[in-house]
Each structure stands twice: as structure tokens, then as C-alpha cells.
Amino acid sequence: MSRSPRTYELVLLGATGYTGKLTAEWISTNLPSDLKWAIAGRNAKKLQNVVDELTQLCPNHKAPDIETCAIEKDELTILANKTRLLINTVGPFMYYGEPVLAACAENGTHYLDCTGETPWYRDMIDRFDETAKRNSTIVIPQCGLDSVPADMMAFALQKYIRKELNASTLSVIFSLYAVKAGFSGGTTNTAVDLFSHYPLSRVASDMRPFSISPVRPTQPSNPPSASLLYRLFGLNYIPELAGVQTVGLMASIDACMVHRSWGLYQTIAEKSGRADIAYGPRFRFMEYMRAKNIMAGALFRFGVALGGLLLAFPPSRWILTPLIKKFFIPAPGEGPSKETMKKEFMSYRALAIADTDKKEKVLGKMDIAHGGYVITALTLSAAADLILRGDLAATEAGKLGGGILTPATLGEQYLEKLRSFGLNIEVGL
């Protein structure tokens, strides 16, 4: 669709929330100083406070304008038509996300968010994928900690295997190697509310690995085998990933995203005849977290399973949810302090196996000197910078022209942008 001139290149919606403020800071300090942008939300006074903080942080950069906007169709339509791209950090997305995404998809405004709510993501695909395609709108949900590290690591590994070994990728195993990071009230409240908002059967169905992929593999590779002892405790042992592996907290969320990227690239390859861009017909992604030993891994897995079970079924959910919100998690809008965040970090390791007779192994490494919320600000800002100022037409997202896409469809340009912003991904034999 042809786009009328827009007032802004970028609008950040939700800039007064915890993640929104961090994203505003990252945009202000890392995107071009001549960027035409605005921050948006309901409360003009709180937005002005954010602008004042940004002005002190970057006195030589143009301060963002302020746009007041409620989560209401008419106001969102006006806002969407003022900007080329909108970043949405207003969650939970299952409550507030649809009208924002809809306004962007319907009005040709590129869209990024930081949801980790896979059932909501699937709803958006069903309802707005065709609309976004028709209006040439690039829509990339889950462009934060969920699930850029996993999605881009898998993309980088399969690209390396294709280039260096001239082969497809059989599997990618992604592991959280080390972490020191806090959590915010908004994110944890969302996780608790997910089971109340969606039926358990729906959550279980949408968390299956290929639930949001446009295609299914005919014969996906098998998960790595483990000894009886490890299987008894629900663990795995992978020497290349530093040993004992337990359940990853974001494993299901990330697997859905990575397999959507696989499915999109597989579909593009089949339609265009460019077999070299496909991950491979038997590709599978798996995610774990490194444990110190079998006992620690088993206890962690048991705790995660028990917590999920208690939240999944009433009446235990009705009893536990208000107690958890009152005594164990921060209020929405709160999170780690600035001093705490300076000490945070996250490290990942990955193992990819080529789909060849020799089953060659390729290793991946990602060390980030930030916690999850700064990583989300970084990944959103990097994606926005690429879409607005990069060679978008050369990416698969640009070639597709629009739709509900994934971070990996931004391709190697996004990898390089992330590296320049401090999220470094290394791969090699």
C-alpha cells in the first residue's frame, strides 16, 4: 500500500512502564541523533517526566515528542497513522495488545513488541497475518528477550552450516549457561495471569513446538538421547553444553518462535526455488538450562513443574495467584534498580548438528553484559533501527513485504546490528 507522509519515524507506546523506560533510554542513546520519534501513553505528566530524564541522559540528542493515547481503536488509528513504526511495550498483551497491533496492521505501520504470550501470538497470526500482508506491514511480536537470543542463534548456526558445510541443519540445542538478572512486576504478573486467561487445553496446544509455524516437518529429528538416570529425573547430559541440562524457563516460548522462523524460511525456499535459505526439512530446536549437578537440576525441574501445576488448575490457582502477587513479585512497573542492573548478565551456549552422514557439530556462544530487560530494550531498538535506517528490502522480511513475521526474517543485517549493540553471537566448528 502507498503510505502518506508520517510525522514520526518511530513511536514508543508504553514508555512510562518498566520495560518502556529502558527502551526509551536505549533508543535515545543508541539510535541516530536525528531520529524523529515520540513516546506515547495515557498520562502526559508521566510521559513528560520520561522526556526530562532522556534530556538529562542525552542532552545532544533531540528529545522525543509526547503523544497521549488510550488503548482505544480511534485513538490508536490516529497514532498509527503518525508513524512509520510503532514499538509496543504495554502488557499483558492478551489484555491490551490486540487493538494496538490491529491499528498498525490495518494502517501500514510496522510493529514490534516484547510479548512472550504464545497463545496471544497465535491469535494475532490467525486474525491479522493476511491484513498485514495486504497492507505491506512488517509485524514482529516477541522481539525482546522472548525470543531474539534463541531465534537469532538458531538462524546464525544454520547459516554457518549452509555456508561452510553446504548442508541442512538437523537440530539446534540452545542452553542458558549462566545468568544473573532480576525480574519486573509486569512480566511476572503476565506469567501468572496466562493460566487464568486461557483454558489449559489451549495453553498446552499453543505451546507445542510447531504450533505457530506455517508448515510442519515431515520427519523432524529426534531429541538428544540420555541415560536412564538422567531420563528418570527429566534431565539431559550434553558435554558440548557443559554437562547437565534441566528445563529451560522459556523453552516452549522460544521453540515456537524458532520453528515459526524455520517454517517461514522453508516456505520461502519452496516457493522461490532458493533452497539455500532453508534451515532443512528435518530441523528441530530444543532449549535447556545448565544445572550444577543432577540434584540441582532435578529440584529445579520439580519446582517448575509443581508451580505450573498449581497455577494451571483451580482452586489452587485462585488461592495462590493473589498471594504470589502480594508477597513474591514486584508491582507492575517495578523491577531491578539501576545499580542492580549494572551487575546483571546472561550467557548462552548452543550446539547445532548438520544433517549429513558425519553429523558435524557446530558450537554457538552468546555472552551479554546485561539482564533480560535491558536485552529487550536492545533487541527492540536494534530491530527498529534496521527497519527504519537499514537495507530492509534486502532482508527476507522486506522481500515478503509484510505479515506476522519473526526476528530471524530480518536476517544477517539484524545479526550485525545486534552485535554492534552488544549482543554478540559467535558460531564455529
Your description of this structure?
The chain has 429 residues and is an alpha/beta fold. It is 47% helix and 19% strand. It has 16 helices and 14 strands. The protein has helices at 18-30, 44-57, 73-80, 93-107, 118-134, 148-165, 185-197, 200-206, 228-232, 251-272, 294-312, 316-327, 338-342, 372-389, 396-400, 411-421; strands spanning 8-13, 37-41, 65-68, 83-88, 110-113, 138-140, 169-180, 236-238, 243-247, 284-290, 345-354, 361-368, 403-404, 424-428. A 7-stranded parallel sheet has the order 3-2-1-4-5-6-13, sandwiched between helices. Strands 8-9-10-7-11-12-14 form a 7-stranded mixed sheet. α5 links the parallel β5 (110-113) and β6. It is globular, with a radius of gyration of 21 Å. The model has no long low-confidence stretch (mean pLDDT 91).
Task: Spell out the blueprint of helices and strands.
Layout (H helix, E strand, L loop, with lengths): L7 E6 L4 H13 L6 E5 L2 H14 L7 E4 L4 H8 L2 E6 L4 H15 L2 E4 L4 H17 L3 E3 L7 H18 L3 E12 L4 H13 L2 H7 L21 H5 L3 E3 L4 E5 L3 H22 L11 E7 L3 H19 L3 H12 L10 H5 L2 E10 L6 E8 L3 H18 L6 H5 L2 E2 L6 H11 L2 E5 L1
Parallel strand pairs: 1-2, 1-4, 2-3, 4-5, 5-6, 6-13, 7-10
Antiparallel strand pairs: 7-11, 8-9, 9-10, 11-12, 12-14
